[in-house]
Amino acid sequence: MNASPGRQQSTPSLPRNAVAQAQQQSMPSPGITTSSSGITVRSVSDNMDMSESRGSVSVGPRTRRPSAQPLQARQPSTPQMDTLADLASMQHHQQTARQTASGLRNNELVEARHSSSVYTLDNLPPDLPRNNSARSAKDLVMADTPAPATAPRVFTAPSLSKGDLQNIAELVSYLASNPFAFESHARLIDLLHQGLVSHVHPSDGQGATTGDPHTYNLIGELHQARESMNSRFAVGEDLYQDWIEDESMLARTTEDRLAVMELCAKAIQDEPSSSKLWRSYGDWMWTLYTSANGLSNAAEGWTEDDKIICKESINLETVLGVWQQGIAATQWRLSDSNVVWDRYMEILLQDLAHSPSTEKVGHIEKLFIDRLQVPHVTWDQTSSAFSSFLSTYDNASWEETMVATNQRAALAKHQYALREMHEFRVQRALERRNTVAEWSAFSEYLDWEFSHRKKSAYGSNLLTTLYERAILRFPTNAKLWEDYMEVLVEVYPIGGPALEASERATRHCPWSGRLWSRRLLRLEVEGKKFEDLEAVKHNATRSGLLETGGMEEMLKVCAQWCGFLRRRAFDKHATEDELDIAEVGIRSTLEDVKEIGASTYGKEFAGDPLYRIERIYIEFLTQIRNNDAVRDVWASLIPQHADSHEFWFRYYNWEIFTWGYERMAASGQSETPQVAPHRATEVLRQAILRQNMDWPEKMIEVFVNHFEQHESVQELQKAVSEARLASEQVAKRREREAAEAAAASATASAQQLNTDVSMDETFGGGKRKRDSETLEVGESASKKSRPDGADSSRPPFGDASSSALEQPKRDRENTTVIAKDFPVTATETRVRQFFRECGTINSIKLVPKHDEASATATVEFETKEDAATARTRDGKPCDGRFIEIQTGTGTTLWVTNFPPTADEAFIRELFKDYGEIVDVRFPSLKFDTHRRFCYVQFLNSDMAQAATQLDGKNLGRKHNVVAKISNPNARKDRTGAMEEGREVYIGNLPYQATEHEIQELFEKYGTIESVRIPKSMRGGKGAAFMVFKTKEEASAALEMNLRIFRDRALKVTLGSATGAAGKRYATTIINSASPEPSTLGNGDAVSPGASNAASSVTAADIRARTIALLNVPDTVNDARIRSLVERYGPLKKIVLRPDHQGAIIEFENVQDVGKASLGLENHEINPGRHISVGRVDDMLRQKPETKIDKLSSRPKAKVAAGKEKEKKEGMPFRQTGFVERPAQPGGRRGGRGGLGFKRGGLGTGASKANGASELGKDVEMGSATDGVKKSNADFKALFSKTADGGES
Fold it and tell me: How far is it, in rounded angstroms, from Cα 850 to Cα 939?
């Protein structure tokens, strides 16, 4: 087994989901009991309660079952905590060999065993003793001996590798201080057991070992490890199976063989529905019987005394009794009940062949007939065996018997057919060791069985047995146990197996306060003794395991216990002693809760927020008429619950109830001002004075209503005034809260609004005066307002890319299913029809297999529930093929740290060797252009897991790619100066301010780690970010807010994560030398000489050498844009605008604009996505991209209308290529509207009739001299000619 991901290597553990700390403490085990069949049963462990059954690990293939509720390891804090004394002793001594099996069961262990009764399922034959809850409850104890501190030791065994031996040493050391680490216990046993197996069956290269199990060096340690785990946890089916096999192999003496029988009995009592353990138990009993009677070769090594002892203890009746109990316990297990029944029938047929009789034939015939009336997976084989049996022993009535039997068995066959698909899914998941699929299959199966429980022809047997099967696989799922308890309580309101199940539940999930409280309740319902409930409550609370589940779990148990004490005290047979016990018990429980809470949470613990135990105490005191004490309890609760309207309602209602009861006691007394409920009135007055109550309006309403019903008119008048004053205060409070919320929202919006004002002024028509009248890159005198009122800072309502606050995020990893074996001709429509009853489908992707014989579809649903419903279609036919459906969990990789210029083709090429890639998804950059990662979805989880081999691979320079299985739940919070409150934002700075000047200005407040000034072409942008060493220093620097610096009032605030995440576009300023794409990211760099040349650059020059790319996907970053356009000439600036589906490109030279326009027009930037070239204002008119990646996003009518529109108008954004006309030397500027345009759309030299055009559309340009019109085609030809001439 491999260590779990994320667990430190220094902490020994298992790969299974941990149930590390919340497990049951040691309990007494049964002593020697003798059943009616003569079976002598002894104890196995020295601290076990036989009424407390254990959990299991697997059913079917030898796979470890998952733990549904992992818990952290709990460190022992008191001397009373159960420890690993037996494991720690392993660090002192190691026996080098075991000559006899008696070394495994020393006399001290045998003498230390406690006696108790045993139990089985209620529907078993009476041969095994039933559970005695009273006895088991009183015998629940824990060892108080702490583990001695010992020096680490080195373990040696030739059959184990050095790594395994080192792991064993680490596990022993770890368990000495963490005795409740479930995974570590199981891992230690696994390693020691594998060493024994390798020792007995050595492989090549282990010639130093022998096949004798007694010479295995660590045999004693293996036994101690098992005993230690068995004293604390539900051991489980697989570990018991290994244990029985090992002990059977080691058994040499009669005592050893009886110990194995004892171990088998203990195993089936811990796991009463396990077919595997019942089979092992029956086989061992049969081995003992045949060996003692000389009927098998297994008697080798038996002495005559051994045979005599076994004959006296075990006879055929005893052996067959065990098999009969196993059949009764497992007969409703549809999947594997044949494991027990077939072997039992084989034994009976052997006995019949040895000594035939009519009585035996009739008995076996009846067993066959009964068996065939029970649904099971091997019904056909059973029927065939019955037919052969009749042919041999009753051939004359074969036909009549078979016909009658088949008629009576029709119901069983029909019932199994109804469940066959569920059984298939469970078995397939089990064989594939897919615990996720197995849990899903069991969940669906249980839901189906539960919904049909009223109509079941077999009562509750199939449903309860199915729960037993699921619990055997997932024994630490507390909710599964709760559901099972609900079913048992429904079927058996009193009596039945519900109490036994509740005991097993608390042993498997000892951290669950709800299960412990259900157990206490069941004990009370069944009328068990006070001592029984007291022992269970004590067992639940004293071990400390409940605390691992949180204080809430402890409170559930305590509340149930106190409720029992109160009900018992007022039972019709109760005495004064019961009253005293209840009062003392409830008060002591309150004190214990406060003490435990204070020790666990310190001063922060303010008691139970629901004050459950206090409410029980109030009810108790009310029943004994101690109203003054009740009021003291209410008063003690006010400091913690004064702001809860519910608390005041309860307090008020109690006072009204008490007042009404006293009035009824005083017969004939009418309500007068003198006898009005004044105490209740005072409660309400206290309540309305609370300034921070959660629902003051309701409290005021009750206050006025109370006075109207119970007080005098004078008091009512006064109350109305009080209520009015309180209402005004509440109104002010609500206004203040609304203002604060609005301010917070405005601040967040302002921080997110991080737009490039200078760029918008140039291309969007804004106006801003600066200290200098010269225009820098991105400035213009144009006064045109933003077209169409577009607001690039806000995503449109309903946009699929809106923030998480506006729309829930899609959980593709958990809402996707993979459907295999569709016909290769299947279409998305056919797939959607196949899943039409399952829920809302977001997307469908069809991938044909390499052999092109079938296709696989990945189907994403709206919710997890829809995906779970879709999995119920597993095995259903589609066009003659049976579809296999599995979950899409684990099929997607999260990939990052690849080169910035990487596109989908690059990613597919990178991962192509690991399997079929279904989809590659890049994130939208609409709200954060700094994102650089993608998701790669494979056809199945094995391919995705294999692709993680690329994790850490160097792709050149500093790009070590990260490739991990996508897990949205593993997302980590951001860390850094901003998140730690050490970053300060300084706004309204002079543009010429330097980092040195700013640092000198703020250095008096503390140590400054860095100062960063975002720069444009002209220098600073009027803002800076400063990082201090500590949060306190940053807070002190806020004193500079509104201080004057160079005639400017500074704006100083703490840095906000909201603003940092709001980079809606990326501006890349590039040196004229056009550096390599790998140098991208230095957005603050300024071109050499830019400051000197800026004064001579006009807005017209900038526009002449600037183009806009349209229809750019919002997943394309600025690095890809740069690599795409820099081939046409040196660049000055790139502005990526994913919020407008575009990018602005400024070249160094005007002549490069034409070449780029021709080359980029209709370029396929992504598969199926073509870009076009146009003006900046055209690009700014484009709205953010609305992705219709959900099949349900657009109504059918709109989709049809959209397709019709595309036919008429063409594909969106496929505009005719635009070529900007170069500025003519000495020519007249075209006015404020831009080159060649007047404000209103008339071009220079164009007639009004022909020149009018809508803003943003191409306008035919005419010559100023000859009046001949020229179109864009003419300009393209002109540029082509110029380009050709330049090349020549």
Answer: 12
Interatomic CA distance for residues 96 and 157, integer angstroms: 9
Q: Residues 830, 836, 837, 838: is their CA dihedral positive or negative?
A: positive
Sign of CA dihedral 929, 930, 931, 933: positive
List the one residue out of 543, 424, 513 whose CA is nearest residue 141. 543
Per-residue pLDDT band for 1084 (boundaries 50, 70, 90) equals very low
d(CA 48, CA 55): 14
- State both tokens at 942: 């094995």
- pTM given for the model: 0.54
180 vs 182: CA distance, rounded Å: 6
Question: In the 3-class helix/strand/coil scheme, how is 516-550 assigned residue by residue?
Answer: HHHHHHHHHHCCCCHHHHHHHHHHHHHCCHHHHCC
Query: Which pLDDT value is given to residue 645?
Result: 92
Helix, strand, coil percentages for the chain (3-state, nearest 5): 50, 10, 40
Question: What percentage of residues in the chain have a pLDDT greater than 70?
Answer: 69
Q: How confident is the model at residue 847 (pLDDT cuts 50, 70, 90)?
A: confident
The overall average pLDDT reported for the chain is 75
Handedness of CA 791, 794, 795, 798 (dihedral sign): negative
CB atoms within 10 A of CB 727: 16
Structure tokens at 953: 């691979």
Do 1122 and 1134 contact (CB within 8 A), yes or no?
Answer: yes
CA distance 472 to 481: 11
One-character DSSP codes across 825-841: T--HHHHHHHTTTT--E
Q: How far is residue 1028's CA from residue 507's CA, in Å, rounded to a whole number?
A: 53
CA distance 950 to 912: 12
DSSP-derived secondary structure for 414-477: HHHHHHHHHHHHHHHHHHTT-HHHHHHHHHHHHHHHHHTGGG-TTTTHHHHHHHHHHHHHSTT-
Q: Are 476 and 19 in contact (CB under 8 A)?
A: yes
Tens digits of per-residue pLDDT, 1232-1287?
444 333 344 433 333 333 433 333 333 333 333 344 445 555 655 555 554 454 44
CA-wise closest residue to 981 among 890, 1055, 1072? 1055
At 670, is the pLDDT very low, low, confident or very high (cuts 50, 70, 90)?
low
Q: Decide if 251 contacts 450 (C-beta within 8 A).
A: no
| Digit-coded pLDDT (tens) for 260-293 | 999 999 898 888 999 999 999 999 999 999 888 8
Residue 1041: DSSP 8-state:
T
Q: Find the mean pLDDT for residues 236-254.
A: 90
E strands in 849-891: 854-861, 877-878, 881-882, 884-887
At CB < 8 A and 24+ separation, what contacts does 517-526 make?
Answer: 517/556, 517/557, 517/559, 517/560, 518/482, 518/485, 520/557, 520/560, 520/561, 520/564, 521/560, 521/564, 522/489, 522/498, 523/133, 523/137, 523/499, 524/564, 524/567, 525/494, 526/133, 526/494, 526/495, 526/499
Task: Determine the 3-state secondary structure of 108 from DSSP.
Answer: helix
Note the pLDDT tens digit of each residue in 311-331. 888 888 999 999 999 999 999
Higher pLDDT, 643 or 1208: 643
Distance, in Å, from the CA atom of 281 to the CA atom of 323, rounded to the nearest integer, reads 8
User: Shortest CA distance to 634 belongs to which of 675, 558, 626?
Assistant: 626
Contacts of 646 (CB under 8 A, 6+ apart): none
Q: Of 20-34, 531-545, 853-867, 930-944, which gets the smallest average pLDDT? A: 20-34
**Distance (Å, whole) CA 322 – CA 344:** 10
How many other C-beta atoms can be found within 10 angstroms of the C-beta atom of residue 447? 13
Q: What's the distance, CA 507 to chain centroid?
A: 25
Three-class DSSP category at 482: helix
